[in-house]
Amino acid sequence: MWLYKFIKTYDPANFGLTYALKASISMLLCGILSYYFFGMDGAIFATNASMSIFFINSLDGTNFTKLKYLYLYIAISALFLPFVKIAYDIGWLLIVPTFIWMFFVGISSLFNQNLNKVLSIANITGLVALIVQSSGYFELQNSLFGLVLGGFIASFMRTLHIGTYGKFTKKTYNLLLDDVIKMSQNLFDTKEFDGLTTKCGDHIDAIKKIFANKSASIKDERIIIHHSKSIFYLYKIEDIFHSLISLKRYFIKIKDDKLLKDVQNEIILNLTELKNIFQDKKVNITKNAFETVKQSNFSIFAASLSVLYNKFKLIKDGGEDNIVLDKKPKKSLKQIYKEINFKNDTVRNSFRLALSVAIAILIAELTKIDHGVWIAIGVLSVSRASSYMTKVVGFDNIKGALIGVCLGLVIIYFLKSTLLFLVIVLFFVFLTFYLKIFPTIYFSSAFMTTFVLVFSVIKTDFLELIIYRVTDVLIGFLVAFGVSFIFFRKIGEQKLTSNLLLVTLSLSKLTACLIHKNGNFATYEKAVLKDLNTYKQAVLEGDKRDYSGFKASLEIYKNLSEINSLIINLKDYIKLLKHSGWNGSMTFTSDINIIKTRFEMIEKKVNKLPYYFYDTLDDKVISEDKKIIYLIKLIADRQNKIANLV
Cellular location of this protein (predicted)? Predict the structure, then answer.
């Protein structure tokens, strides 16, 4: 049972399972065909091409666009192979072209994200070629043919899916829509409705855990096509879920069964229409019953329905791409050229990675070890944008490698001479792909176990080789962490980030108090003030040599303080309205939930998780009171400034 729950936490719709099966089949097919036609040399590069293509981070665009970039990977890798011997023979001078190339790969993300993803994975193919060359024999023709054959087969397998949305989005959000449809069908049945509410709430929480998991900051969700939209749909359907709960009371209190039945049927019809989004069909939202309620005496019921129908419209517009999430304006070459300086994080990270890999190559040459290229691979596998994340990923990689070695040796000792051994090898190949969506330590364990098992078959001295590989991962981690720590560490970065997240969480809770009757506003306000003071101290104690970072942190603090003041103003104003018989609480609740969600999105951006963020709330705020609209837009404006600074 615990294993089932663990798997469902990271793979609730089995999308990772499907992807891993497809990747494993592709790798086996490429290996078998290339071995038959081009021998072992062809098989090595065919399987490497297949694995690389399935490890490429999610590409943006249509299937045709993705295929073009996958073919670009094949072309770049193929162009490098004829120069492998020259690169290997120039010795320590290899650090010069290595540094230049790695730096170019890094800054390519300023031009085109897809290009950066393809060039990054092509690095691995180049390093594999150097490893083969280090063995003393590199057969160019068969290696080249194997790479091309494997690349084309894997490209076809990688892009083999139907429709705009990936399996995760289709399966998961159809499941959630089915949940809220069933809730709508039972608005008159309290007992059944309550049971369905619990079930839907559990499903929403399970999906949220995928995006909230720390591993998502160092992993790519390869099956979640348009991951920003996946989050968008999750939060909008959760809004519908809460709206239905708030509407339930009217289906008990109002004594107009015909009107209520018409409303219920229209809600069910509209929810069913929303499912067409995931089949690339047109969505038609019906409002006849809603308009009837607006003309009736049930004004509060009409206001509650207005919130629900507004969510219908937002989801419909999102499906038709009228709402653009995580949109980045196109840049001219002149703008890109201006960005290439050391104030730009992308440029600094590119320099850091290039320096780390070049140092790895230099270490290999100076110490005369023949496995130096593996150190470079170790650098690539653990290197992240900060010394903190490099440390987290590095430790998980090392722990996973040690677990994998031990597990592999146990399997070899007991099962090496049996037929079951081959089945286990194939199973661990599958796990290597499948566990990519799980925390790093699980993937690293599976990868190293596979490595140990495969090399026990093809090399007699595999144990010495395995010890080298673990050592290489350790050296690679030390190089990557050392460069990040010594040259690019932002003093107090971890502390600042941690304190910023505490403030946003406190502000989110304070915001929620505006709509929850049992919320203790004074208690949460005290917590906000405490966290704000802690964050300010962390900023002042930080490294002021990084003036731009210091200035940005102070600006973030200023905006957080202003948001706190605005929330207090909003609370006082709402208190006055309630004394005068105010009946706009439902629309106000919807607007406050938008503000609350934006705090969550800031947190996701800080943690480098997928997120969506509107630049403006002009057509999203549905309250009618001008002062409420004014205050909410001021809060949203400060949130925008913070989101742009983190």
Answer: Cell membrane
Q: Considering only CA atoms, which of 102, 118, 112, 103 is closest in space to residue 52?
A: 118
> Mind listing the pLDDT tens digit for each residue in 394-419?
778 788 888 988 998 899 988 888 88
Residue 217 sits in the same domain as residue 153 = no
DSSP states along 199-268: HHHHHHHHHHHHHHSGGGGTS--TT-TTHHHHHHHHHHHHHHHHHHHHHTTHHHH---HHHHHHHHHHHH
For 430-462, the pLDDT digits (tens) are 998 888 878 888 888 998 898 888 878 766 667
Crossing angle for the helix pair 420-434 and 440-458, nearest 10 degrees? 150
Across 368-500, the runs of DSSP E, i.e. the strands, are none
The answer for residues whose C-beta is within 8 angstroms of residue 520's C-beta and 6 or more apart is 513
What is the number of structural domains in the chain? 4
Helix, coil or strand: residue 194: helix
Q: What residue ranges of the chain have pLDDT lower than 50?
A: 162-165, 213-226, 320-327, 491
Q: Cα separation of 556 and 567, whole Å?
A: 17
Under DSSP, the state recorded for 490 is P
Domain span at residue 14?
A: 1-160
User: 105 CB contacts (<8 Å, ≥6 apart)?
Assistant: 116, 119, 120, 123, 350
Given a contact cutoff of 8 angstroms between Cβ atoms, the answer to whether 160 and 22 are in contact is: yes
Considering the domain architecture, whether residues 4 and 136 belong to the same structural domain is answered as: yes
Report d(CA 222, CA 230) in Å as an integer. 13
